[in-house]
Amino acid sequence: MARYVVQLAFDGDPRRLAARPAHREHLRALHEEGRLVKAGPWADDSGALHVYEVADEEELREILRRDPYTAVNVVVLLKEWAPIL
Question: How many domains are contained in the chain?
Answer without folding.
Answer: 1
